[in-house]
Amino acid sequence: MPTLIEPTVAVHRSFLAAWDEFGPEDERWMGARAISGDEEEWSREQAEDPTEFARMVELIRSEADPATELRPDLVHQTVLWFVDGEEWLGRLSIRHDLTPVLTELGGHITYGVRPSARRHGHGTRMLTQSLPIAAGLGIDPVLVTCDLDNVGSRKVIQAAGGELEDERHGKLRFWVPTHVA
To answer: Where is the N-acetyltransferase domain (predicted)?
Structure first.
């Protein structure tokens, strides 16, 4: 049964296959980014190396730690991977705080399902499984956004209990409760 877990080296091979499916224009979904001014973005080639992949996993995991220094444009976030055994199916991020830009466009939770795993209900399961985690971080409700024309994501958010607040800059903004009354 697919579940959200902390990033792990156990899915290295499948992670790389998913990276190839997303392609270079969607590398952001892989979570391989620089979080301080000291490191570079990870490339697909770097991630192939098991040692570099392990470093990348630890860096991604460190983003949740309030003691980790981040670039000024970033907020702390808990990154989770949606896996079925050793099969990497997607990623989800729970941002601990919102900047003005994130309030307008990004929200607390973002998620992405690898192309070959779409239309199997994974997005809904990912978002639903993340709500108690967000509640544990003291976030209730969470803001989740999607592009105006992204019908699939809109359905995922609504299935998780999202209530539409409004549309801003081509993004639909939904509030999803994390605590069940």
So the answer is: 43-181
Q: What is the mean pLDDT, run by run of 10 residues, along the chain of 181 residues? A: 96 94 70 63 86 92 92 90 96 95 94 92 96 97 96 96 96 92 55
Fold of 3-176: Aminopeptidase (3.40.630)
pTM over 0.90: yes
Per-residue DSSP letters for 5-59? E---GGGHHHHHHHHHHH-GGGGGGGT----STTSPPPPHHHHHSHHHHHHHHHH
Each domain of the chain, given as residue ranges in start order, spans 3-176
Contact 145, 174 (CB under 8 A): yes
**How far, in Å, are 19, 93, 123, 153 from residue 25 at the CA level?**
10, 19, 20, 19
Distance CA 30, CA 12 (A): 12
